[in-house]
Amino acid sequence: DGGITQSPKYLFRKEGQNVTLSCEQNLNHDAMYWYRQDPGQGLRLIYYSQIVNDFQKGDIAEGYSVSREKKESFPLTVTSAQKNPTAFYLCASSALGGVDYEQYFGPGTRLTVT
Amino acid sequence: GQQVMQIPQYQHVQEGEDFTTYCNSSTTLSNIQWYKQRPGGHPVFLIQLVKSGEVKKQKRLTFQFGEAKKNSSLHITATQTTDVGTYFCAGHPWGNNRLAFGKGNQVVVIP
After folding, report:
1. Chain A interface, mutation test: which of B9, B33, B42, B63, most A Cβ atoms within 10 Å?
2. Which residues contact B49 (CB under 8 A, 6 or more apart)?
3. Are A32 and A25 in contact (CB under 8 A)?
4. What sign results for the dihedral spanned by CA atoms A43, A46, A49, A52?
5. A100·B33 Cβ contact <8 A
6. Average model confidence (pLDDT) for chain A?
7. d(C-alpha B63, C-alpha B31), whole Å
8. Residues A29-63: pLDDT tens digits?
9. Residue B92: what pLDDT?
10. Which among A81, A104, B50, B71 has most CB atoms closer than 10 A?
């Protein structure tokens, strides 16, 4: 939807394993974002990237890592260091990283770690 | 920390009635955006307000940006079952290029 795909929709992992969530966009957007959504918590920014090969930490980056090797792709790795990884993860993109651009969200990946 | 606050967090609205949801910031915002997330879905952009005192309408939805650019509201008239979902506001504090989302207002429509 909106040219952003996230896969898989549901993901189950055992505690102690790293897991990588995929995010791809064909909107030719420069900026991409990863959010975490927990019930009643709204959207919390994990990482964002405004240009290829560059990214910045958001508000809750600990236990996560990202890469931006291609404009279209912004994968998120949830490492074993993330203390409470079970959540709904949303990827978004915008035309530019400035303040005037709406964000387009992917359908999300629901990660469950047991 | 949380810079954008939304109230109320939950609302139960009778079908056909009107309701309003509010968004408040501790700092001046360069703009405010509103998103809607249907149950089980992802946020979808509704509108952006930029000017002080700006009012925009989309059919039954009226969006307002305060004169001081620290608060905003969304008013929905004649609520329909399709209005169910969580409404998020998101603002850009001046000098900061990151969007700060509120925690959302979850709306349940009672038929």
Report:
1. B42
2. B31, B32, B33, B56, B63, B64, B65, B72
3. yes
4. negative
5. no
6. 92
7. 13
8. 999 999 999 987 889 999 999 999 999 999 999 99
9. 85
10. A104
